[in-house]
Amino acid sequence: MLDIWTVNNDHSFGIIEESNSVILALPVASPPSTIKYSIISGSLPPGLRISGNNIVGTPFEVPRPTEFKFVIRASNFNTSTNVTELSDRAFSITIDGSDQPVILNNTGALPIGANGQLFILDSSYVDFQIDAIDNDTAAGQKLRYFISSGDGDLPPGLSLTEDGRIQGFIQPLLSIPVEERDGSYGNALYDQYGYDYGLRPDNGYDSFLFDSGAYDLFLPSKSPRKLNRNYEFILSITDGDTVTKRQFKIFVVGDDFLRADNTITSAGNGVYTADGTYLRSPIWTTDTDLGLYRANNYVTIFLDVYEAQVLGPVFYQLDSVNPDSTPSVIPPNLQFDPLTSELYGIVPYQPAVIKNYRFTVTASRYGTDNEIASTKRTFTIKVLGEVNSTMAWETPSTLPPIDANYISTLKVEASSTFQNPVITYNLVAGSLPPGLTLQLNGEITGKVNQYSSIGTVGMTTFSDGIYVNQTFDGGTTSIDREFKFVIRAHDQAEYSNIDREFNLRVNTPNDRLYSSIYIRAFMDQKKRFLFNSFVNDNNIFSPELIYRPNDLNFGIQRDMLSLVYAGIETKDAARFVSAMGLNHKRKSLIFGDVKTAKAKLPGTNNIVYEVIYVELLDPLEPNGLKLNSKITHHKNAVNKITADTSNAIWDGRENLSRMNIDEPYLPRPNQKITVDQTNISVSDPNAKSQYPSSISIWRERLKAVGLTERNYLPLWMRSVQDDVRQELGFVLAMPICYCKPGTSDIILTNINFNKFDFKNLDFTVDRYIIDAVTGYGSDKYLVFKNDGVTI
Fold first, then answer.
1. What is this structure's pTM?
2. Which of 80, 96, 112 is the last residue of a domain?
3. Whether the predicted pLDDT of 334 surpasses 60
4. Could you tell me if 412 and 341 lie in one domain?
């Protein structure tokens, strides 16, 4: 026994400030030089490590005071006894690091104007960023900006984003109508216009020395027709734990306040600057990247700016030089209209595949006295030359026949001479068999519905009460077996497309419907999150390796589902419930090894797909051993089952007269027994017979429901595997993913490298999921009983 610790368990090293370097001595007494320390549980605060007999480092940022608990193991190899001595001790360290956001903008008026001015003209566009810093963002926190209720408002037309940007067009403020003239009292009908718009004269009576001027002498002056307004608001920033507030204001003025004939505003009031103008620079709304156009075609491109009637006309000029001193060049033969900023014309033949053109346009707005406000924008346009983008179908027009009610693996495919084509497929005419869907990547997914059911259409359909103009193969009545439809394939840039009419015959080898029965693991939220994180990891399941990722029957399996029985004749639910009357009870399965298998076309070695699955083991069937469906014990059972004269059956309860319970309040029996049950005998009150609940017995019970069609077994279970030289047959397994041929080993390596342990999950089942019963074509749940004689 190694005895070196000088403190008891749960010792705390105290509170340490984040981002400060520390050296904490481990509480050990005279440790030998050969001793080694390791963390066996919990973790040190990020940034700290064990070095020698000390904990050293600089703790990382934390969003809030955080306690880290860990266990350190001291180990030393005793050379005299050849034994490694161990000693463990639990510790804790608290890192203090709750930082408040710091707003960098000064309180008061925001420099939101065109040149950092402390005012902004109405009808102007605003894109202003409020800046803040918070060290806790290094710990994963995110700052969020908002204005609380009652903390003021932004000017109308502006909005605040959660990342602190004030954006939008400021709506014009109320103007004084022309009929109101200078806005003084009594110029219009009572209350027709706002009162107090008039200016208080400062050049009349009492503006000069007493009695030196006529009474109320007033020289009319220019009266602004728009209102100015200060919008004050309190901005809040939170990192999720703390909130910082700061008061700001935005001063919105009308354009007529920045004219020389404005007599009520002084230039030296500290707000207006010499570079202020009533003109607003044009605001470009067209993106700088104009896109890709084909050569030898007519081209029309509009370059737009934000326009409003109050802002004045805009004129455009095509510059000869870009801001970076490169030539400003538009594609040849294009014309530029300086009044509408339109590019138009026929781009001539071009041998190059793609050629880029960059040019700059200046948009200028003119004032009443030839004042100018301008904005430049540099655009890029790409011209595609005579590219030979030829497409061809790889899939013949006659598709392989498909059997009704079986999962489809059909796919159509086309090729293109375009470099690295991304081809998409659309159904443009005709219709697929009912139940099949064409995906954009050309996969035909689903399964053909042979018969109609509630909510689904089958291959044989009749109109509902309409008997006019009945036709076959195209009318309201259909018994089609051959389907014709047209699919269009086109490349990613729509340079070319190609159509093909396909023929698909649907075979109906079975005159009965068949169902498949599954079990699904129902886990708690924590374990579901663990499994979802695993199957959604693209580093493990590379999307380019997955087979039919858009098909629910293939791709990555995000439901923990396992097949119990495939291809049992579809019956009403009662028949299956009856089969579950014996040997069925809630049980847990054990995860085994992760394996791979190949699915091959019947009679060939052509691989359709590969599957990665994890084995499921039944604890009642170790090493493949199988129990009898009924086990009889000769020892008396603990709970004796009796019946009383009231025809109620109880398990060992005293009679009701002793319990003093009235009829309306009778307790529910612990074990409900019905007359059709066969697992409990009247002659066996001690329940000596028990019924094991195992997978093999489940399958035997289900087999008795009806006929079995083996071809409903998944293709990979019916395929000869290269390593064993025989078909796998039924495998109790949970598929993880289906992958393209030759790629399963790559994904399996990724899984092994990830070291995901399925034993951290729980595969406990208490019901069947059956994909169809008589009268219903959707999934149904059949819950197991939970009686005392099933084990």
1. 0.49
2. 96
3. yes
4. no
